[in-house]
Specification:
The chain is an alpha+beta fold. The protein has six helices and six strands; from the N terminus they run αββαβαβαββαα.
Amino acid sequence: MADTKEILVKLLTIILALIIVAGLGYGGYRGYQYYLFTENLKEVKNNLFLTKIDLEKKIGQFELNILQLSAENTNLTNSLIEERNRNNEFEAQIQSIQGTVDIVQKLQNTDKELLQKYSKVYFLNENYTPESLVAIDSKYLQDKNESEQIHVSVQRFLYSLLDRATANGTPLEIISAYRSFKEQASLKTGYKVTYGSGANKFSADQGYSEHQLGTTVDFTTPDLGAGFSKFETTTAYTWLTENAYKYGFALSYPKNNAYYQFEPWHWRFIGVELVQKLHDNHLYFYDLDQRLIDTYLISIFD
């Protein structure tokens, strides 16, 4: 019986030892596994740290590259702006030069005689003829059987004036327009025969007549006809004094002028810009200095 108990005790001791050994082995295995896990974790953390540092370096380099590109882009933009400004300045210079050339060419192509002060001041020689004359439509003439001419560039202004006057109920007719040097000489001779030296009060000598320019007309009305000495009393004359400047025409010889007697029928085209100045300042053509008048030659037909 005692042997049996001894055997059981030994058996239990062996089993317990086996259990302890097994437990220790399992715990060691688990401990080793834990050790490996922690080491791997450390390695992963270290790798992640290194990767983070590398990534931050790359991000920093990328940001630096962006800043450099931005600076280069700003410099390029500024360069483009400067180049554009230089091009604009150059273009403006070219346009200015072209404008100056155009003005010079325009002045060269514009007859400087058109704004000279004739009427005993400047002289037009017998060979002077306007660059281009055109016949005035007979419907605008007092004598439909006669032929009158006007400067080609004045025609449209004259027709506009006449049409507007008719529409206003104050119709005008042209009794005289362009006269050559010889025609003026013949006319003046006839006046001298009739009026003697008194003709000098109302008629210019040849070479001093504004009519030779081809830009001057004498008006009458259908009622007055050729006897236009009473033109001042007509509503047509009043209309001219209030509206002729809009079409570039100015009264050459107003009352108390220094050249001839008052001629309410005698109107000269001098350009809208110049006659507007005269109208606004209550002046007449012969009141202005010739040098000032000359500055308006460029715009006479504008």
